[in-house]
């Protein structure tokens, strides 16, 4: 009997061990199935169902289990993806509670992307900079460069933004073109115009940028004072851009023709700009007024030159001077006298100052101002300021006639 009992006892132990092993295997398989189902639901973007499934997984494992922390990550991620308000808080809790988790890097990456999508750029920068970029795949690496670049740009840190965009602008992915565009835009703002042009050229032919590239190129040529290139390039594309941007391009073209001394061609574009809404500057009025003046359309020149006289600068002196001549040529000597006097009181252009003073004195004489002391005073001032002038003989002759 002892022998038999000795044999039976080990067999019983073996049987118990087998049953226990089978239970563990079955339990393990069941957990793995639940995890697989939860991940499949997540992949199908059924985030709420995935969240509940991971909760069931957690109910069956200990809180110290790696499976538990994995489920906690996916629950937080599901809340982020479903747009729940507490998603970012849940992910932040995961990052704080499981610093050694193998999902830590993904947690930071996904949280940073969520913050970026919510336009929370400062916190997105902080989160994304904590991501170990070396563990990311190519798609994720490109995305994080783009998100950081855009976030830095929104925070007006253009140097760092340009560095991030530079990393991906020449790659072949969906973010390379927007990265090229923003990189070019930053170079434009920093007055690195050739770099900006190089970036913009890569976007030629892309309909997404067809409305903005001509604006940048035209402005760059204008800032570089390449007026010939502006009239060659911009006149050909002005009708293709959005109607709201056509007036500013018309101004650039008109101004370019003005600098090329082709005033007749400048006029239609400057007129087009002036027909647009919005206030016009003294310079805007001077360009059109002076262009009319050069083709001797003095009647049209007058109202624009009058508006250009506001202020105390070189432009105002020029405007008064040419306005005075317009008044003379339209037989309005009283206004001409006033305009010449105003031009003579500025010190920006000595040649204009001298000529304006002489003409002021001359017109004062022609209008037979009484008392004649006004005429005498004007010529005396001219002779005193310009004692070596070739016109002093004429000035003295006028004084003799007055006396």
Walk me through this protein's architecture.
This protein is mainly α. Helix content is 73%, strand content 0%. It contains 21 helices and no strands. Helix 1 (2-43) packs antiparallel against helix 2 and helix 15 (282-294) packs parallel to helix 17. The longest helix is centred in the N-terminal third of the chain and has 42 residues, at 2-43. It starts with a helix and ends with a helix.
List its traits:
403 residues; mainly alpha; 21 helices; disordered N terminus
Explain briefly what this protein structure is.
With 403 residues, the chain is mainly alpha-helical. The chain is 73% helix and 0% strand. The chain has helices at 2-43, 47-59, 66-81, 87-97, 104-117, 121-128, 138-154, 158-168, 176-189, 193-201, 213-223, 227-237, 246-259, 263-274, 282-294, 298-308, 314-329, 333-344, 350-366, 373-385, 392-402.
How are the SSEs ordered, and which strands pair?
Blueprint: H1 2-43, H2 47-59, H3 66-81, H4 87-97, H5 104-117, H6 121-128, H7 138-154, H8 158-168, H9 176-189, H10 193-201, H11 213-223, H12 227-237, H13 246-259, H14 263-274, H15 282-294, H16 298-308, H17 314-329, H18 333-344, H19 350-366, H20 373-385, H21 392-402
